[in-house]
Amino acid sequence: MPTLGLETEILDREVLARSVARCREAGIVLPTFAQLAAPQALPPALAARVAAVDPDAPDPANLFRVHWYNPPRGSAAPLALPDYLVLPEALTGVAAPIVVLPADRFPMIHAHKVLPAYTCLAPRLITGQFDPTRHRAVWPSTGNYCRGGVAISRIMGCRGVAVLPEEMSRERFDWLARWVVAPEDVIRTPGSESNVKEIYDKCAELDRDAANIVFNQFSEFGNYLGHFLCTGGALEEVFLHLHAGNPRLRLAAFVSASGSAGTLAAGDRLKERFGAAIVAAEALECPTMLENGFGAHNIQGIGDKHIPLIHNVMNTDLVAAVSDRATDALDVLFNHPEGRAHLERKGVPAALIAELGRFGFSSICNLLAAIMTARRLDLGPDDVLITVATDSAAMYASEHRRTLARDYPRGFGAAEAAEVFGRHLLGVSTEHLLELDSRDRRRIFNLGYFTWVEQQGLSIGEFSARREQAFWRGLRDLLPAWDALIEEFNRATGLGS
After folding, report:
1. What is the pTM of this model?
2. Dist CA 124 CA 8 (whole Å)
3. Tens digits of per-residue pLDDT, 186-219?
4. Within 13 Å, how many C-alpha atoms sit on residue 395's CB side?
């Protein structure tokens, strides 16, 4: 049965007492959701402690860096405004500015999935459902969330188990090998990015052992709420900053690959606040939302073949399908010297070219879906699209070499760079983009039935409740309740105020 993580009452005080003792001994103070949404307001002593710690160390202070306001490496204090990039027409071929928040500023894993790892674990910890002295934390993922979960587990002093497809990039497995307690804590499931059901099957097997607690990002609403509050808030702040400089701007759309659908929660906030359309991207090679389709793809970090339980489908406006051949090609363009030289000749600023070289595959997917949206909706220079660069190119060096060997065996030169730029940026097609009407939304929503009710055993009532926007708005009441419990937990450790 999926665990939704909606509890706000303490379920086991003995487990809670052991967790409090563990955090007291390890010097762990838990950040509230509100502190991760506005990290500049930390007490000075705590802020100084965080600033003194290496952002990539498994140190408890780095829990307070699990937010969008981190500066580039080399600085310490949180920024007043999240770092962001504005992608110009010279790069995208569309007049509408595409604003991107780079997630490689997040600590330890250089990807924003460490945020939902914490926001899924914290509610279980403070309600006495997870015992770091006895339980193993199981993190099902296609590569970034499980790394975030393992990092959080190291901080908590407990066993973190990564469950991910065997065909994910070598760099993910190398990272995990350095961070897990034991080699057997990295579990490889059959297949590639698309094979999420195989992950679920392994987790169902692990869940039969009471020593394991599965933190399923696809069904835990701590993921949704962490992104609604923290990611949505960060994107809102960036847009308001841009709007203050140009009051003609409107927020036309928020774009994100579906993945676990956690990041799409930010779209719910931006749609409510600014009327922004919500665009969910997926892989063209496995067009689940677009065509009820199947297949396999390699846009690592976006999952597929299922509709996540925490995806507010009935509030989604467009679906964009992006080919993994396009993300592969642009990864080469952004990282190869000939590709960078071509971008410079086209007028893309050198500083932006350097940032593009840090985009992982799902980041490139978001960029392409934003370009598709701008073209389909005929957006102009006052219409802002906003998205996130989900993870770092550091996880894809082996994939980069594979693409070069497969697609450019004779080398990647000026002609190849021009072809990639023309086809996969200036020539982006809107053929595989669907504007959803009520029937499309119902169709996509109903696809989730087969995963969550038939396969995973969720009740039809719990599944169907998610049709109504009142359900999603009601989730927000959990945030102050959880923050109150976090503050109580910290007081119990003697480490909080």
Report:
1. 0.97
2. 9
3. 999 998 888 888 999 999 999 999 999 999 999 9
4. 26
